Amino acid sequence: MIPMPQPQAALAQAARERQSQLTKPAGSLGRLEDLAIWLAARLPSPTPMRLKPMLAIFAADHGVATEGVSAFPAEVTAQMVINFLNGGAAINVLARQHQISLAIIDVGVANDYPNNSQSIAKLFRTPIANGTANLRHAPAMSEAQCQKAWQIGFSIAQEAAKAGKTLLIAGEMGIANTTAAAALICALTGHAAEDIVGLGTGINPASRALKVQVVNDAIARATASGANSAQDWLREVGGFEIAALAGFYAGAAAAGVPALLDGFITTAAALVAVKHDAAIGQWLIASHASQEQGHRLALQALELEPLLDLGLRLGEASGAALCVPLLQSALALHGEMATFAEAGVAASNME
Ligand SMILES: Cc1cc2ncn([C@H]3O[C@H](COP(=O)(O)O)[C@@H](O)[C@H]3O)c2cc1C
Ligand SMILES: O=C(O)c1cccnc1
């Protein structure tokens, strides 16, 4: 296993001391204070500068879509890739608004789509196959495919770090990927499918019951074939974009750059990464609590507390992008506020 860089405790301590001297009652900026301290240890600086965020969306299709587990047809994956390239998706709006550079990485979109040289976002076309196999009945991918997807995500994170990005964000697009993510979360946490499987894009109760059955069948099948490690489960019930996301988080940690999670699917990928190497967890922060049923339990398994709870259930890194201005504000407050001494403001009387 590659030794991971460690957050610097001395910088966290310096940032904590600075927070105690800023012109506000101690703790009055709540979690913004914790965020500034957390980031100081990792960026690493006692007063970190404005973050330079990058956002990668990994897109791929899922064989399990044929089971009827999504409210939308599989063609929507490719259609949404076109939408991302044309700038019309929710994430395009948020990336523009918060000045986040956007890259789309096709790691296995099944349907063809035109290459538009006018596109708004950068496109990396590195499909591994036309979607995964149907995880209910067979391993979603081969070991070689899984490693390839992981490596693509890892490289994207490493390149972004090399280019000077200081906050790495990943999102996903892949019809039926909440089924794969739910199966992974169940397998890696031991929670029951009934507690983890949600409505995804908005399925009805009958389809949800089927989705629970599909997840249970997939877990039974993979257990019978000896699945044990996080990598085994990723290959058995994951997806190409989920493997790339897990590799992305591993790459961010290996580069010593913080990574911001999004919703249900990215959290499933983060669980895989952290089960693979616990040190990766030190570089992850949670953005929001998704409406998808099992998301909170998955975040709890990672010991992460989401910043926002807006009832989002979109993916595309939309919840993560919404947290970027919060993180920027945390750092600006930390770096730019006057101390009691500088401002000549009397400090608290309380010990
Ligand atoms: C138009 C559209 C845009 C999306 N953007 C993200 N997702 C989200 O929905 C999908 C997962 O839900 P399920 O497992 O139910 O298919 C993923 O593609 C996810 O990113 C979208 C879904 C749709 C339909
Ligand atoms: O939380 C998510 O990431 C999510 C939830 C539903 C559908 N797509 C994504």
TrEMBL record:
<dbReference type="InterPro" id="IPR003200">
    <property type="entry name" value="Nict_dMeBzImd_PRibTrfase"/>
</dbReference>
<dbReference type="InterPro" id="IPR023195">
    <property type="entry name" value="Nict_dMeBzImd_PRibTrfase_N"/>
</dbReference>
<keyword id="KW-0808">Transferase</keyword>
<dbReference type="Pfam" id="PF02277">
    <property type="entry name" value="DBI_PRT"/>
</dbReference>
<dbReference type="GO" id="GO:0009236">
    <property type="term" value="P:cobalamin biosynthetic process"/>
</dbReference>
<keyword id="KW-0328">Glycosyltransferase</keyword>
<comment type="function">
    <text>Catalyzes the synthesis of alpha-ribazole-5'-phosphate from nicotinate mononucleotide (NAMN) and 5,6-dimethylbenzimidazole (DMB).</text>
</comment>
<comment type="similarity">
    <text>Belongs to the CobT family.</text>
</comment>
<comment type="pathway">
    <text>Nucleoside biosynthesis; alpha-ribazole biosynthesis; alpha-ribazole from 5,6-dimethylbenzimidazole: step 1/2.</text>
</comment>
<dbReference type="InterPro" id="IPR036087">
    <property type="entry name" value="Nict_dMeBzImd_PRibTrfase_sf"/>
</dbReference>
<protein>
    <recommendedName>
        <fullName>Nicotinate-nucleotide--dimethylbenzimidazole phosphoribosyltransferase</fullName>
        <ecNumber>2.4.2.21</ecNumber>
    </recommendedName>
</protein>
<dbReference type="GO" id="GO:0008939">
    <property type="term" value="F:nicotinate-nucleotide-dimethylbenzimidazole phosphoribosyltransferase activity"/>
</dbReference>
<feature type="active site" description="Proton acceptor">
    <location>
        <position position="316"/>
    </location>
</feature>
<keyword id="KW-0169">Cobalamin biosynthesis</keyword>
<dbReference type="InterPro" id="IPR017846">
    <property type="entry name" value="Nict_dMeBzImd_PRibTrfase_bact"/>
</dbReference>
